[in-house]
Amino acid sequence: MSTLAQGKAGLERASTAQKVADMLRERVLDGELAPGLRLSEEAIGGALGVSRNTLREAFRLLTRDRLLVHEHSRGVFVRRPTGDDVRDLYAARRVIECGALRLWNGVTDAQREAVRAPVRQAVARAEKNDWTKAGSANIQFHRGIVGLAGSTRLSDESDRLFAELMLAFRVAQEINDFYQTYVPWNRRIVELLNNSEIDEAVDQLNEYFDAAEEDLVQRLEAN
Amino acid sequence: MSTLAQGKAGLERASTAQKVADMLRERVLDGELAPGLRLSEEAIGGALGVSRNTLREAFRLLTRDRLLVHEHSRGVFVRRPTGDDVRDLYAARRVIECGALRLWNGVTDAQREAVRAPVRQAVARAEKNDWTKAGSANIQFHRGIVGLAGSTRLSDESDRLFAELMLAFRVAQEINDFYQTYVPWNRRIVELLNNSEIDEAVDQLNEYFDAAEEDLVQRLEAN
DNA sequence: ATCGTAGAATCGTTCAACAATCCAACGATC
DNA sequence: GATCGTTGGATTGTTGAACGATTCTACGAT
């Protein structure tokens, strides 16, 4: 029966609004729709071949994900994260990820592997100077950490935080500079975890957040 | 200027969909719209005097808040939390609130007071056997704890978790029984915090979560 | 240069329509 | 008698047009 249960996910037809939202999400995250850009209902709806009402439903979805901001009677815009936004995001990440990391000894092997594997990937990709894929492996690392908590709600919210953070990276034109520093950082965290030095791992993660936040805020406020 | 800045919030006209969503949220949380109930677009739209399209926008908002569930081509229903939902909710709360609590020594006095004050209120109201208000004071206590993190994103998400949890309470017909036990529990946590015994306070909070989760799951699965 | 105003553009919301989907009742079949 | 198609009826999904309300822009007055 497990194969049938798997197929179920594919069966669930996505609504048009959902599909439109997914498409727009990609465009926003890959930078095709730049932060600050206003999304005209008429233009986008016409281009995608959907009605204004359906498009507005899609906008609501992305607004809840904080990728778009809605200004009454003015329209929706691609979010342009500020320094304050970044501080807020990292305050949330600190609590969530450090809290999740403390659960290390009480989770399943699969959960622990979901933290280790992305680090190995990031190392391999960094050696090939493929910083784009190394960056996504980094996100997988942090997704793995949040996954230690075993809460889909927490993981979903964290995904939204990560997506918003990627917008901030784009605004800050943060490309590789900082990405090169976190790979060894992540390695050290995993080593500490493997030695059951949880508190030290949490400290390292916190320091990583300090550095990343500061770097990002600097670039944003220099805009 | 501060008075002008305050007025700004009131100036921002809420959209009809937002107002409808707020109204429905109240009805769901106070139990007037019972968990599992299907919300007919025609019936609700007619009763509230809004068009189907606007109502659907409101439904989307509440679906994202997890108060409603949307089933394709079948309609929207008031969420009926399951035991698994409750376990997921508490897994998230454990990480968020225990993580936030550890920040106790590094936050402002106002933040700390936002944790202490609700406990005093809960004590006062419990003495008058006003368990409804004591219950909302309990939520304020936990909101205060999350607020220690200083992240509006985290606080907003926690509010959603709390709202969903109140739905679970309703399904479980959890009235006063358990509410009577947490008041002294909260008192103890605050005392430990005042003595800077942070780790002990976190332990207590974790035990509270254990007890609350177990109690709630039991009632739900007995349904 | 600042201010106010008219007109264009866009949003907010409603309404009506139709296709797609689901549901409940009814027989048909074994 | 229980299971299985089938058939309408009801509800959702989506569209398109319409119109008042709001914002933006450009132009001219002070």
UniProtKB/TrEMBL annotation, chains A, B:
Entry's CDD domains?
A: WHTH_GntR (cd07377)
Keyword tRNA processing assigned: no
InterPro entries from the UniProt entry: GntR_C (IPR011711), TF_FadR/GntR_C (IPR008920), Tscrpt_reg_HTH_GntR (IPR000524), WH-like_DNA-bd_sf (IPR036388), WH_DNA-bd_sf (IPR036390)
Query: Is Transcription set as a keyword in this record?
Result: yes
Q: One Pfam family of this protein, by short name?
A: GntR
Keywords noted in UniProt: DNA-binding, Transcription, Transcription regulation
Domain (HTH gntR-type): give its ranges: 14-81
Q: Which domain of life is it from?
A: Bacteria
Q: Which PROSITE patterns match?
A: HTH_GNTR (PS50949)
What name is this protein filed under?
A: GntR family transcriptional regulator
